Task: structure prediction
Amino acid sequence: MTAGTGTDIVAVRRIATLIERRGLLFLRRWFTADEIEYCNAKAKPSRHFAARFAAKEAVFKALPIRWDGPIPWRSIEISHPRQGFATARLSGSVLESATRAGVGVISVSLSHCDEYAMAMAVVDRAL
Result:
């Protein structure tokens, strides 16, 4: 049973500018070490960072939880296993809140081009 859906779209140039201006301060605030390593290994890292940025927003929008205060963005990790599709992993307080809300599987789809990156997330309840 679906608990929620979320979408987000991000301008790739916006993320590229943040990376240029803030460098590792920006990256370490939003992304895990594995996400940074994965994206930096790509020919155009800003596209991949933008897609993950959008995916984190989409996942958070889809979660059936209430949240007060700043969102710990590194607690939503978008990984890209060898099977070729992205997955979302939660940790810390976001995982605790999602578990209490009965969240099961989180499906994520990413897409990007030179100008934009978008993501969609679907959260299913645990059986």
Q: What stands out?
A: The chain has one domain: 2-125. The chain has a mean pLDDT of 93.
